Fold:
Amino acid sequence: MTAKPAPTANRFFTATLAEADPEVAAAIGRELKRQQDQVEVLDGLVANGDGGNGAVETAVKQRVRALCQRFPVYP
Structure:
């Protein structure tokens, strides 16, 4: 990541984040997309009620296990 020059004083409060720091704006955009994808998975599980959705549940379970192994709460 390269340092971006700060917006000039007269643009400090009016410049958009994308104008002031495009890399940070892009990272925030990627995080928003990731969170929206997670919400879609949860909505899909809720929509199926008690019957659930085995394929989605299995995929999510695998991702959760991988994350728990990568970032253990109690190492």
Notes: Residues 15-70 form one domain. The chain has one domain: 15-70.
